[in-house]
Amino acid sequence: MLEPHTPLYLDTPPHVITEGSGIEVRDAEGRWYVDGVAGLWSVTLGYSEPRLVRAATEQMNRLPFYGSFNHRTNDVALALAADIAEISPIPMGRVFFGNSGSDANDSAIKFARYYHWAQGRPERRKVISHHCGYHGTTLAAGSATGLPHIHHGFGLAGDDFLSAHCPDPLHPASRGMSEEEQVDWLVRDFENLVLETGPETVAAFISEPILGAGGLIIPPAGYFARIQEVLDRHGILFIADEVITGYGRTGQMFATTALGLRPDIITSAKGLSSSYLPVSATLVGERVSEVLAEGSRQIGTFGHGFTYSGHPVAAAVARETLAIVRERDIPGHVCEVAPHLARGLEKFRGAELVRDVRHYGLLGGVQFDPEQADAEPGRLGQEVLEVAKQRGLLLRAMGDTVVFAPPLIITPGQVDEVLERFTAAYDDVLAARRR
Ligand code: PLP
């Protein structure tokens, strides 16, 4: 008999986590695991940062709630906005606070539409995203998500959401092409999509700088610069979804800087509070902010916001998170540790059952090849995951790609531990397959 609070989609009891310390978590059976994926790519400062607990407690005692709505806000939300403006990789006009990556992306899509509407272009409503992109599960973010299982049964998308090819260097349709040729092919196809649907109907393009849940896809060099030319040519806004990559994971505060992007809007969540409390920030560039502000001045309202926008306790934790990230130079630490992870993962390149190895900052992926093992797609990933868990390492599998996204405070010694346990899991799966 399953408990009533068992997640809706499960028909077996869930793995219950009860405690955390450093980069490890303990389950209800009392077993400790190294968390190789930081919760959901998100617990950047690990599970026992006392400063975040103190920040939450102090704020709870001072003012547990007053959100940002209508003409009222709170001092902490204002201070967090100023903190974010200081580190923003784009000239930021305003920041909008929400509670999750999904609502940040829904907000960004609404802002893009409002931007066009306020300038007399109400027909610009469509959003282009990638086939393998992940932007969340709410109506708009889920519609922009390109993973079929997110759509299944929910009646999402419709005519306003279009998908461009996944910018995957291993895309079967671009097999045999050089990197340059592949970028040409992707960009040509992207522009054809825009032209076919009518540029005058497109509001925005949304993309992760590195595509996480789609299987850690690192677009080919030069891809975004060329896409940007298409966007500029057709007056389409660019929303960079930095929900995974924001606040240090790539070795820069934002992947926008690491990859030289020029987004109009950046969405962020997860690492903003090291996930200690739910909070998202949508960074709205100056150009869009000005139009939004002028539009709402003229009609006297801007009908978007949540009860918990700018929640003071979440904002206090986010402020402290950013203070720690800056004081300890977490992006610099990532730059030091990342090559260690990269070297360890590179050892799997060309190994039996392995199709590809990818890494960027503290993001890594080992893609298994079901064809080599005559396995169903996704099966090898699940097998490695299960054995890794038995060996005390939590990872995630996106299809056959096993991903690594440890807390950013991980040390080189702990990276070794992750790699050792992963190697042992791989060896076990390989041995079992050979039997
Ligand atoms: N965008 C990206 C890139 C994500 O990886 C995620 C979640 O994993 C989201 C958006 C959605 O965030 P949330 O689950 O907080 O709604």
What does this structure look like?
Belongs to the class-III pyridoxal-phosphate-dependent aminotransferase family. It comes from Streptomyces fradiae ATCC 10745 = DSM 40063. This is Taurine--pyruvate aminotransferase. By secondary structure, the protein is α/β, with parallel strands linked by helices. It has helices at 38-41, 50-62, 75-87, 101-117, 139-144, 148-151, 179-197, 223-234, 255-258, 286-299, 312-327, 330-346, 370-373, 379-390, 412-434, and strands spanning 17-21, 24-27, 32-35, 92-98, 126-130, 161-164, 202-207, 237-241, 265-268, 280-285, 354-360, 363-368, 393-394, 396-398, 401-404. The protein has a seven-stranded mixed beta sheet with strand order 4-10-9-8-7-5-6, sandwiched between helices. The protein has a four-stranded mixed beta sheet with strand order 1-2-3-13. β14 and β15 (401-404) form a beta hairpin. The mean pLDDT is 96. It binds pyridoxal-5'-phosphate (PLP).
List keywords for this structure.
435 residues, alpha/beta, seven-stranded mixed sheet, four-stranded mixed sheet, 15 helices, 15 strands, 41% helix, globular, binds pyridoxal-5'-phosphate
Main pleated-sheet profile? 7 strands, mixed
Which strand-content bin applies to the residues?
15-25%
Q: Strand order across the biggest sheet?
A: 4-10-9-8-7-5-6
Number of strands: 15
How helix-rich are the residues, as a percent range? 40-55%
Bound compounds, each kind once, are: pyridoxal-5'-phosphate
Principal-axes geometry comes out as globular
Poorly predicted sequence stretches spanning 5 or more consecutive residues = none
Averaged pLDDT: 96
Distance between the termini: 36 Å
What is the gyration radius calculated from CA atoms? 22 Å
Structural class: alpha/beta
Pfam family, one: Aminotran_3
Keywords: Aminotransferase, Pyridoxal phosphate, Transferase
Family: Belongs to the class-III pyridoxal-phosphate-dependent aminotransferase family.
Protein name: Taurine--pyruvate aminotransferase
